[in-house]
Design goal:
The complex is a heterodimer of chains A (77) and B (849).
Chain A: E1 5-6, E2 15-21, H1 25-33, E3 41-47, E4 54-58, E5 61-65, H2 67-70, E6 73-76
Antiparallel strand pairs in A: 1-6, 2-3, 2-6, 3-4, 4-5
Chain B: E1 4-12, H1 18-26, E2 30-34, E3 41-49, E4 52-58, H2 70-82, E5 84-92, H3 96-108, E6 113-118, H4 120-125, E7 129-130, H5 132-139, E8 143-145, H6 154-168, H7 181-197, H8 206-214, H9 218-227, H10 229-250, H11 254-274, E9 275-276, H12 283-295, H13 300-319, H14 321-341, H15 346-363, H16 366-382, H17 384-398, H18 406-414, H19 420-425, H20 433-442, H21 452-462, H22 467-491, E10 503-504, H23 513-547, H24 553-571, H25 574-591, H26 597-615, H27 617-634, H28 639-656, H29 665-681, H30 683-699, H31 702-724, H32 726-738, H33 745-756, H34 760-768, H35 779-787, H36 793-805, H37 810-820, H38 823-848
Parallel strand pairs in B: 1-4, 1-5, 5-6, 6-8
Antiparallel strand pairs in B: 2-3, 3-4, 7-9
Helix pairs in contact in B: 3-11, 5-11, 7-8, 7-10, 9-10, 13-16, 14-15, 15-23, 16-23, 20-22, 21-36, 23-37, 24-31, 25-26, 27-30, 28-29, 29-30, 31-32, 32-33, 33-34, 36-38, 37-38
The chains are: A alpha+beta (77), B alpha/beta (849).
Chain lengths: 77, 849
């Protein structure tokens, strides 16, 4: 089993599986509503010109979130 | 509340084709309003299925029903309180898993649902096979494959939904799924408490209410507290206990676990043979990814986007100028027509200046709004808008805004010359309420098109050498103030953490024309209705303020006397006498029937007098001028000459703002002479030169000069009347306050008028300087200001900054109220912007003077 790391640390093109999400409240709900839950595999498909926000591919669609929001999401490769 | 069984709600995620389906079903039989008190749109319409008429409600697009956003609160409220007979859930078939999350929540609420597996064509292309039968077997809901863009499957989907609605009448047994041993046990403990107290059970299933307590759903908990404080407290206590337990044992939260189990339930459903063969990297998404490689590229992305935004601005403002011109011409014509029919007096003045001016001003914006919404609808529906927000977010977030704030800023005048009315309305694309409000309130600081004439005039007078630089600085000041004020607001009045950005980047798609047209029409119509009525009232009030109290009788009489004495002098001239006589006869002729024997006689007499008049110097010159003009107009088109003419006009305009001794003035004069000479060599140019000479000769005639004098007296009277009116007195009274900023009463009146519409500033200033109506020719005003010792660079800078920053115009204010949903923000904009502009203007004047 690989070590957990922050979603922010993934490079473009890298894929990983979500292990835990530490956000609660409004942020947590929003993240989960969009399908980001443990066990889902995500791939970084791009970053905005200023390296933030980040674009992810999961469950067949593309999602974007800020690096500060990605910090709540831990993944394993 | 009784179930509305012939009402069907359409629900679904954003970008699932939900609105396309709704438009397909209802066509033009829909109406759009707002849910009371908030800015979420309420769309409803009627459709026909199997000879029956059903009412369709288009719920706001949401990913969930957790009451996280206003849209979700509204969607849930409609489902629970209006109780549609059944819900047609439109799902993007290629993103089945995430889309079913919303479906599941509706099933848990006990709502009868039919699925429209939409965008089935794209899903098939990706090799996705969905076994609808298996899905029905597993959770008992019908699913119909559809393609909303072509209409495929839509009638069947609606017929199935109606059948379900008639059968279930809005309620069915709620779906109960397992949330793991801890939560299931807790729910078992809570449900009887809910049932016993009948806590919200008239609207929701009891287990669902308990579940919402565990999810810490603020909306439900606060409703529960009102319904039964004791039961609610008991439920909250159990929730806290479970929450602690889960935190210590699993390092998680109940709502997180609940979401995990829901997704777990969905994925196990799909694995039981519902979903087969997914090839993600095919077609639509792969194609979209390729486009994103270019369109969101680190360097190319921003470059292309600036191009796109510039094109949007260009199309809205520049192309919008043509229909805007038509609307303006129409109102000018109407103004003239009404002016000619009504007798002089208060009624005429009120209708022409108040009603037609005000309504014309409002409708003048309609072409801009229509074009802008067409473009925005295109950007949104195509998926590009989400990319714009994605690329700009890093910068705008710093100021407490959202990546999507850029669009309203640009349209409002971020590229000088925009308009805040469509700009503020463009904030509808922002889904984050705090960021949206901050954008609405700051967009009017941009250098909009109506502020430009003021800038051009004063920059032209006082900064002749650095015109372009100063104009650019003004534009940048607009940006700086907008962003800084946004930052300030977000840390004071609109404080609060930034709304989560988490957003879908939908695949690129070609929007449907009908969708764009419907969207655009809805917006334009809403604007006309709302802005129109309020502005009409305001423009009549403003007209009254500028007309009353009217000049005292003795002053009026003084002007009349002066005018009469000049008229007396004039009447001694045969040219004038003949003109008066002809006019009198023509009026008489108008009153006669065509066959009246007297008419022929009158006509003959008119011809005779006209011939006499045309033999006099003034008449003869006029006839010659008219003939020459006709000759010129009959010439074939000459683009080369037109170009020369344009250059000459531009040069002489620039030259007018220079003093003869200024650097470059000589070279310019030489160039102008050369160009004029070349122009005179073209056929039309030669005729123009002769016309110019004749006109000069005619203007020098004593009777024509006297006529000009009468106009002068009338203008002077208008100026006095303005300073005597309420607006004038306010302007004078304000002098004490505005003195530190260097504004005199004339400037004050003009600026007060400018709150109605910035376009009015220059024309009011013209009236105050007794120049009468200022048309295309603003040079006389520039000359007056240059000659007035009151005006220095310091006043000019203060005025420029004040004009840039002070209160938005009335139309914008009304739109701010409409978009923010509150009068409070209208008044805030008015007062705060005035105070800010005043401080900046005073600071500038005091530093420079």
């Amino acid at each position: 089993m690989m070590e957990q790391m922050s979603l922010r640390r993934l490079d473009e093109g890298q894929a990983a599986v979500i292990s835990t999400i530490t956000a609660e409240g409004e942020m947590g709900r929003r993240i989960r509503d969009m399908g980001l839950v443990p066990g889902v595999s995500v791939q970084v498909v791009g970053r905005a010109p200023l390296r933030d926000p980040v674009a992810l591919r999961l469950l067949g669609f593309t999602l974007t979130l800020r690096n500060s929001e990605a910090d709540f999401i831990k993944v394993t490769q | 509340m009784p179930a509305a069984q012939n009402t069907i709600a359409i629900a679904g995620n954003p970008n699932s084709g939900k609105t396309t389906a709704f438009n397909r079903y209802t066509g033009s039989r829909q109406h759009v309003g707002n849910y009371p008190g908030i800015t979420v749109e309420k769309k409803a319409g009627t459709a026909h299925v199997d000879g029956k008429t059903v009412t369709l409600v288009d719920l706001p697009g949401t990913y969930s029903l957790t009451a996280y956003s206003l849209e979700e609160v509204v969607a849930r409220k409609v489902l629970a309180e209006e109780r549609p007979g059944a819900v047609l859930d439109v799902i993007n078939a290629s993103v089945l898993e995430r889309n079913l999350y919303l479906t599941l929540q509706m099933l848990e609420m006990g709502i009868p649902v039919v699925l429209a597996l939409n965008m089935m064509d794209e899903a098939r292309d990706q090799g996705i096979i969905i076994d609808e039968k298996r899905l029905e077997e597993l959770i008992g809901i019908k699913a119909v494959p559809t393609v909303a863009r072509t209409g495929e499957g839509l009638p069947k989907a609606l017929a199935e939904t109606l059948k379900l609605a008639e059968e279930k009448k809005g309620r069915t047994a709620p779906l109960e799924i397992s949330y793991g041993p801890e939560i299931d046990a807790t729910l078992k403990e809570m449900t009887p408490l809910v049932e016993e107290a009948e806590l919200l059970t008239h609207k929701y299933p009891s287990r669902w209410v308990a579940l919402k307590y565990l999810e810490r759903d603020e909306d439900i908990i606060s409703q529960g507290r009102v319904a039964s404080a004791t039961t609610s407290a008991a439920l909250e206590k159990i929730t806290a206990r479970l929450s602690d337990h889960i935190k210590t044992t699993l390092h998680s939260y109940p709502e997180a676990l609940i979401a995990d189990y829901r997704y777990g339930y969905i994925s196990s459903l799909l694995r039981q043979g519902v979903l087969k063969g997914v090839d993600e990297m095919k077609n639509r998404i792969a194609y979209s990814d390729k486009m994103d490689k270019v369109l969101t590229h680190r360097i190319l992305g921003p470059v292309i986007m600036i191009g796109v935004l510039y094109a949007m601005y260009y199309l809205t403002i520049e192309i919008g100028d043509y229909p805007l011109g038509w609307v303006e011409n129409f109102f000018e014509w109407l103004d003239g027509a009404v002016g000619a029919t009504l007798p002089d007096g208060l009624l005429k003045s009120m209708i022409t200046s108040g009603v037609i001016g005000g309504v014309g001003g409002v409708l003048g914006f309609v072409p801009l709004i229509v074009i802008m919404f067409m473009l925005i609808a295109f950007m949104e529906d195509s998926g590009y808008m989400a990319r714009v927000a994605y690329m700009w977010d890093r910068i705008f977030r710093f100021f407490g805004l959202h990546g999507a704030s850029i669009m309203p800023f640009i349209i409002s005048g971020g590229i000088a010359g925009g308009c805040a009315v469509p700009g503020v309305m463009a904030t509808r694309t922002l889904r984050s309420p705090r960021e949206r409000l901050a954008t609405i309130l700051t967009a009017p600081f941009m250098a909009c098109g109506a502020k430009m004439p003021v800038f051009l005039l004063f920059v032209g007078i006082f900064f002749e050498e650095d015109k372009a630089l100063i104009m650019l600085l003004l534009s940048l000041t607009g940006w700086a103030v907008a962003l800084l004020v946004a930052r300030l607001l977000r840390s004071t009045l609109i404080r609060g953490a930034s709304t989560p950005f988490v957003m879908e980047l939908p695949p690129y798609r070609l929007p449907t024309l009908s969708g764009m047209l419907i969207h655009t029409w809805e917006r334009a119509w809403q604007y006309i209705k709302k802005a129109g009525t309020i502005i009409l009232a305001i423009s009549i009030l403003l007209w009254a303020a500028m007309s009353f109290p009217s000049l005292p009788d003795d002053v009026s009489a003084g002007f009349a006397e002066k005018k009469a004495s000049i008229e007396g002098e004039l009447s001694a001239f045969p040219h004038r006498k003949l003109s008066d006589e002809i006019a009198g006869m023509e009026e008489e002729l108008d009153g006669l029937g065509a066959n009246d024997p007297k008419a022929a006689e009158l006509r003959a007499r008119i011809d005779e007098l006209t011939a006499q008049r045309d033999a006099l110097p003034a008449g003869k010159l006029q006839v010659e001028i008219d003939e020459l003009t006709a000759q010129k107009d009959a010439l074939p088109k000459d683009p080369a000459a037109d170009k020369l003419r344009e250059q000459v006009a531009k040069l002489s305009e620039s030259l007018e703002w220079l003093k003869p001794e200024d650097a470059g003035a000589k070279a310019m004069q030489r160039q102008l002479d050369e160009l004029s000479e070349a122009l005179e060599k073209t056929p039309s140019g030669a005729i123009e030169a002769v016309i110019g000479l004749k006109q000069k000769e005619r203007d020098a005639l004593p009777e024509i000069r006297l006529e000009a004098k009468i106009t002068e007296i009338e203008n002077e009277k208008a100026a006095q009347a303005l300073s005597h009116s309420l607006a004038g007195r306010v302007g004078a009274a304000l002098e004490r306050i505005t003195a530190p900023a260097g504004f005199d009463w004339r400037t004050n009146i003009a600026l007060v008028g400018g709150i109605a519409a910035k376009e009015v500033v220059i024309s009011t200033l013209g009236t105050a300087y007794s120049l009468g109506e200022i048309g295309d020719d603003e040079h006389s005003l520039a000359d007056r200001i240059r000659a007035d010792s009151h005006w220095t660079k310091a006043n000019a800078v203060a005025l420029l900054l004040f004009t840039l920053l002070y209160s938005p115009c009335f139309v914008t204010l009304v739109v701010i109220k409409q978009e923010s949903g509150s009068w409070k923000w209208l008044f805030f904009s008015l007062v705060f912007n005035l105070a800010l502009a005043y401080s900046v203007a005073v600071a500038a004047y005091q530093t420079l003077a």
